[in-house]
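Archive transcription. Copying these from loose printouts into the bound notebook so they stop getting lost. Printout 1 of 2:
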Amino acid sequence: MSATTTASTRRVLFASLIGTTIEFFDFYIYATAAVLVFPTLFFPSGNDAAATLQSLATFALAFFARPVGSAVFGHFGDRIGRKATLVAALLTMGLSTVAIGLLPTYASIGIAAPLLLAVCRLGQGLGLGGEWGGAVLLATENAPPGKRSWYGMFPQLGAPIGFIASTGIFLILAAALDDQAFFAWGWRVPFLLSALLVWVGLYVRLRLTETPAFARAVANNERVRLPVATVLRHHTRRLILGTFAAMATFVLFYLMTVFALSWATSALAYPRSQFLLMQMGGVLFFGLGIPLSARLADRHGPRQVIIGASVAILLFGLTFAPLLGGGPVGAQVMLCLGFFAMGLTYGPIGTALADLFPTAVRYTGASLAFNLAGILGASLAPYIATWLAQHHGLAWVGYYLAGAATITLLALLGLERRPEELAAATAP
């Protein structure tokens, strides 16, 4: 491989990684603030449980905006190219995040505060809805034969890196500031720092060229007028099964992050900083699971690996409550096991969904499947889990996770029964 080709490959993989890292950093700082900050600052005081549920409801809004972002950015990604669309998605997410850091609170402007927060959260969802699919395609459509899953895992690594960065900055602020300063202005720092990260991401992405697969689609006049209509009309089955195939991934992650943090720092009385550190330790196993699963997927196929991971998630759901409620050691074991299972399912999911759709509608199709799975699996997961734990006990949260894994397994088996449907999509 020539030095020029090597440099180009590194630039592509770094661009796919840096973009999703920024996007997930922005997304996770909201998730953390939705538990630790927003219930106090953006909603009426008097009922802490109600404020937390209202805050988690604004957290859910982004997941309903993400399929809209998939359709909008997917249209342009499939019509005019991956590069320009990825730049626009990054700007949408970044500007929405910075705006959150500048919002006045409920004490200043009353009911307008949570409304503006909801608008910014919708902007985050639109941006991430367009970001993920484009980043996966940027990597997989530049991959050599036999390495699609390995290349496709680079944007997936943005999730654990973004989580560690977002959690780390909240821990630093918690250590450096007292509660009064943190709630007065310190919580705004992560949102405002996002502007610097976005600038780095834009600099890298503006230096990219189009992917070879998209260039061939243009040369062969394969582009369609309305990609979303084509996906809904001609690839309905793939879209539905792909959505359910990714559902357990979302349920698991947001139970391990948002719900676990909320429940541990309230019902289980863990200090905020202690549990954030425990989560960071667990996320290291998330990061380890992603490249391991990518290697296995290139050898055995992404669906086979995700099937195995889904079985592991189902079994993990049955141990979720005893481990989380079993003191610090049990909770740490729960976090490590759960995040490792998350890495096993998350590493190949981008390649698996991209392989379901032909080049002309791949940006739209893969993005829609992933983000519709976000609605089913993540948007209300912290809310549902909190309600289940409060009304029926923590064990029901684990049953909820096991049920989601069962649905995902059935969808994956449905995809496996029709391998001929995937042959055309996996061709270059």
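Printout 2 of 2:
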Amino acid sequence: MNIFRLAGDMTHLASVLVLLLKIHTIKSCAGISLKTQELYAIVFATRYLDLFTDYISLYNTLMKLVFLGSSFSIVWYIRHHKIVRRSYDKDQDTFRHYFLIIPCLLLALLINERFTFKEVMWTFSLYLEAVAILPQLVLLQRTRNIDNLTGQYVLLLGAYRVLYILNWIYRYFTQPHYVHWITWISGLVQTLLYADFFYYYFQSWKNNVKLELPA
């Protein structure tokens, strides 16, 4: 564990808490893509298959449980909560996310470090996480309705990935033989997808105006 990994985990956790705060207290999921949340639920479900077989640490186990539980809770809220689901903009959240799932699965079957079920699923989760934010970004571009909590949620998700890249760089120079090309490339692709959002977020902050993404 290093400071970049810890900061990345805490930022990731903060993004989930911000989203849960919006949904639970305001009883609204306006501006939130159900498609992205479903993709994240798949990411965590396929990544943490070792949850009850390979114990690493209490911290590791708790974080896995938190991200699994929160991701499926958010999907449940948007789909089934009698008040929250009314604010879901189904007509705008039309990104066909299965077009992301199938190529990521095929890529994981072709390019992985070991051809075992758990390893392929782990690799699939990396590829899918890299593009899972796309339905959310497309929804924000379509609706141009970005409230403060939604903007902070996406910003924290992007910051988490940037901090993890710093963690990988730190480990590369401090740990011998630390080379994980699949993880690094997937993380870099994911970070690049946030670049446009980062630009407009900081422009809105600097000029003290409402955040809007170009259509």
